């Protein structure tokens, strides 16, 4: 339930202080206005209150004079309410809760510190796995569902077996690597990094160091070259993405590539291409996000050690994270990554619906779709139907607004359409591997407009920063 | 058929149904509920159909497939009308005889009558069966009279008259007044006054308002709600429609656990029939009142029955409890005002409207009115569903209806309130069954589970069992419940395995303290009850386990040993041959000895030793006497003979 303060002003007493507040606001929020600090573990003001950790317990006295322990993060205030945040019973309740939490997570500093404030140095209870670091506050799962909108990490199991994990305990296909889960986690738990791939700024820097080579630009990322090019392939723009993949394949840089192909109608799917023809047939952009990352794991399991991925910035990031993890187990694994510029992707079902609604045509019949100059263009039977991309906002994939990377900063080479003329692709080379891909590729160079790329990259980053700001503010680490 | 369009349409139809009934009223009702089904009633039913054809009685005898009357252990159960003769444990091969003798000639077949296991007396009428004699079956009685799949049957016993009365002779306020004055309290566990909940939803801002039936019934072993849903779904539906009318709701849900397929089927049929007749849907009986009902099938977990969890599940999300500082009656399903009541609560409504609040309030105690259905189980001679007026003593339920403890054992305690209820000991057996009295004793009414325990029950083990159940059934969302139960489970396991330490009781106390004040939902808040009540009434047992390493009830494997009394062993070789661990050393004529290092404490030897010898003993808290020397193992009688 959302905590909505109504317009009605009421008066209540917290620790003897009279406070005015809007009826229905949480005790926690009201207490903050008079500088009364209440510990919380599962609360983040950007998210709906959850009431799981119970550490924010306070004691209230109701109209009939009865005292009761309630959780302040979600107890709505009303006229005449009397709140005691420091009573003996409150202290005792928090003390016992913290002792239980410390027995669960004995090495977590945050819990140790808080427990110490309540007089607990060592739990008298049984300690299971001493490395356990998740207190099951659910913030990661909730931020991912409520805000980011992808549910890449969630609760599993009931009762004492409860845990947080990516669905099915395998590489999450939905994770966009935005890092929200890691940001909100009060204990910096390892759990959010098992099958999901939060890429915080420091993670990105580390990956850049590990895989890339060039000068670093805040917005364009690490790179050696940026130029416009047109290949002989009739691709989405200059066909460079496909040309680079074909070149790498022929040079033996990889023997399998994960590419994206239309299946039925406009529906797209990640497939494993093991021939040049299969790579070629996957050319052209499909503006929907597909499930791709679990394929990496599959290929490696099957014994493939030289793999290529082509994907949007979120896929590139998570791809790098997966590569880092796999490298510890398979040190000779080689992954080549071709990144695509991307401002946002669509959800197939929603896009189909909106295309029908806005353009009156069936997306599944599209020969080609394009985003150009702020317009979404659908070609059917040689005719073009279009409307402003903005109008398709209902169809945007969850997560895109939380992604701050436009140019696929962690790829070996990025390709996009912004920044070059029609029929050309903008290419950013970021690593030796990227350079190698480019060797002997047939293409014509064109003029590149770096400013256009930077403009969109800035715009995307700002949008993400704005989305993240309340979450970061609500985080109490 | 045309939907009924007025109260008089309904009465006309009712008259038509009653007139059509055979004047002789020859009928056989057969219970086809889950309990009797498991005992093979389907074969009995088939036999009746075959036999009726054979004896040219088609169309002359009404075979009714009815619901459950509660005495399932004595099923399959049938009733022969018009004489109302009850036969129990009927087999398909009894059928020809039942038809030719009882049905046609009113002749009683003695062996099929109920035989009192204690007095040996036969009971010809239900009122002579002790199990039924002391009940007051206001709700369950109809289960034996109607086929739940036929709305006409329900109409024949006066069904939907209460609805017509409410719609045409009463305002919603009148209905509210009646419910208020009946003092009806919820049967789902908490005993919350029904009127207050309804009034709160009625007054809460926000549309639509929802009314919901809770048939999650997660209490293990309980089946009161299932019996009503399977046997008389229309009575619940009628109550729900009346409630909706009073509250001002036009949409309802019936939440049923998936594990109740027959309940779901019968409720689906009931909804369809009621709709076709104009008793549900648009413009009910021409009154202008609209009301629709959907069935929601739930994944039957214990915690799913908790009100906020259930409502979250109806919204299509994972059914987990959520904070309820604003009551669900004001902000429930999709944050709209929602009244949730238990199956049994709803089923009481038509009775109250038909007979009046005054009548209802005349049954029971000052604080608890009407009847309550319990699922009587455990160490008691008669088990099954019993419906009793509030105020009856626990002793009467156990000793009069249940006819006491089997095998001459002593009563030790009774668990009420389900897994998070508590144990009530001998000294409180005369307490009246009443919401507030049970709470005072540290237990609770719950939804009606009642498990009787005899002297062979270990109270620490019992607490461990329930805590272990709750560990699996808690949703795991909030710290106290999840972590507290986990720790309590570890401590109790330690105690029953003989490794308990002195501070364990204090630790259990600490856990109880935090779970009961700080848990998010009532599961956690009541989860300490089994531990607290056993500690309150049987603390000495905990202490014996911890301090003396002794299980007084001789139950806990970690604390008992099996020992063969050399004076009593006759070297019959039975235990020797049956011991699955090969832990018994013995041969013909030689006293058997248990190799304690091999013994797994399965108790086979104890169970197998012929009662006339009783040589195997269970001991606890003391050292097993050393095995007698090899050379002295000749059995006693031979030793004596030798001496002679
Ligand atoms: C969802 C999405 C949004 C984009 N948004 C922008 C944008 O805002 N601005 C911009 O400049 N460029 C954007 N692009 C990139 C652009 O559309 C072209 O893909 C890029 O310029 C390469 O063109 P090309 O002719 O070289 O590619 P091609 O040679 O046609 O090859 C395209 C490659 O992309 C792969 N691919 C196609 N669809 C997907 C997908 N959904 N997920 C992963 N891989 C896929 C194919 O397998 C193929 O290998 C976007 C791409 C995608 C997939
Ligand atoms: C863990 C838990 C399980 C519950 N299970 C049930 C149940 O199976 N059936 C039920 O009617 N009420 C159950 N309840 C009680 C409901 O939350 C709710 O109080 C009840 O359905 C309200 O109906 P009543 O007022 O008619 O009793 C349960 C409560 C808890 C805390
Ligand atoms: S008390 Fe138990 S069941 Fe209830 S919300 Fe907390 S963890 Fe879940
Ligand atoms: S319950 Fe309030 S912060 Fe966790």
Walk me through this protein's architecture.
The complex is a heterodimer of chains A (477) and B (644). Chain A is of the alpha+beta class and 477 residues long. Chain A folds into three domains: 9-86, Ubiquitin-like (UB roll); 139-198, 2-Layer Sandwich (Alpha-Beta Plaits); 204-345 and 397-468, no CATH class. In chain A, 31% of the residues lie in helices and 21% in strands. Chain A has helices at residues 27-33, 88-104, 109-117, 139-148, 180-184, 201-211, 240-251, 276-281, 293-301, 313-329, 348-359, 432-438, 450-474, and strands spanning 9-14, 17-22, 57-61, 67-71, 82-84, 154-156, 163-165, 215-217, 221-223, 225-231, 256-262, 268-273, 306-311, 334-340, 368-372, 375-380, 383-388, 413-416, 425-429, 443-446. Chain A has an eight-stranded mixed beta sheet, with helices on both faces. Chain A has a five-stranded mixed beta sheet with strand order 2-1-5-3-4, sandwiched between helices. In chain A, β1 and β2 form a beta hairpin. In chain A, α2 packs antiparallel against α3 (109-117) and α9 packs parallel to α10. In chain A, 51% of the residues are buried. The model of chain A has no long low-confidence stretch (mean pLDDT 94). In chain B, β11 (371-378) and β12 (384-389) form a beta hairpin. The longest helix of chain B has 19 residues, at 529-547. Chain B contains 25 helices and 19 strands. The A-B interface holds A 1-2, 49-55, 57, 69-71, 74-76, 89, 92-93, 96-97, 99-101, 103-104, 124-126, 135-136, 138, 155, 157-162 and B 301, 303, 318, 322-323, 325-326, 331, 335, 470-480, 482-487, 489-491, 503, 507, 510-511, 513-514, 517-520. Iron/sulfur cluster (SF4) binds at residues 303, 321, 474-478, 481-482, 519-521, 523-524 of chain B.
